[in-house]
Amino acid sequence: MSSRTSTRTPSPRAVRWTTGLIACGLGLVTAFGLVAGLMKLLAIGWTAFLVMMAGAEMGRRAETHVVGTVARRLRRLAWAYGLSSGAMITSAALFLVPNAVSHDVSFGGLGIALGIVGGFAIHTGLSPQASEGEAASIPVVWVLSMHSLGAGLVIGAVYATMPALGAVLGLAIVSHKGPAGYAAARRLRRRGASVLLLLGPAAAVCIAAVPVGLIDPPTSDAFHAVVFGAATGLFLHVAIDFLPRCGWGSELSRAARVRPDSQSGPTARRVGNVRHHAVWSTLAGSMLVVGAWALL
């Protein structure tokens, strides 16, 4: 890892300070929420937090034990990223997009477009000199944090009209927070960054939703549509970015430690076959969410 790349990774001290601040913030909003009786907001916020951090821990462990032949590592990575991104994209389409456009179709669509473009701008602007896999590791934390903050703001503003806590709402949270935490943690581990950085996006829903629920500010449907649409667009950008691309020099091939001089012979054929696994894994991730949604 070059010195330029390493300077982009937060120091252990910075991670500790960030973790402490997030823990204090989450503790404070939880206490205020309990006093005010905002149990629905707390349930949504804490479920999102726990699910995302559980996914992150699974991703951390999986990335720590990447073993086997090149072809085997590639297949495992293709399935890990394919399942995650397929589930994330389908979950966003089934649960997040309808919520965004339900407030206002035009402004919701505008918000989604702004979120996708904004996510690209963050990824590109924060790491313009790093390679593809390295560049996306730290910016993905910012994009996921902004997604969670935006969603939290809208959830806090409209919590009184939200559906009761149940299986569908739980599936909506689990099907996009869990895979996002898993995929982001693997990318962070490969960069040498701490998975604790994901505490920010994991806690952001609760930290944003409870204060808004306490204040109950006057807002409009157009405002809700733009904010939630932007949050949805940011998440869709991350989900698409996690799709398992299998070309030479891609994030997947670097993560599996494919040597640059292996572009011919048996290794090249095995790498080419991984493309089928990438497609099937993405479809499988999508179908898992659709199947769970259909059962509910």
UniProtKB/TrEMBL annotation:
Q: Where are the transmembrane segments?
A: 14-32, 77-97, 149-174, 195-216, 222-244, 278-295
* Top-level division of the source organism's lineage: Bacteria
| Position of the signal peptide | none
Keywords for this protein:
Membrane, Transmembrane, Transmembrane helix
- Tell me the protein's name: ZIP family zinc transporter
Q: Which organism is it from?
A: Salinibacter ruber
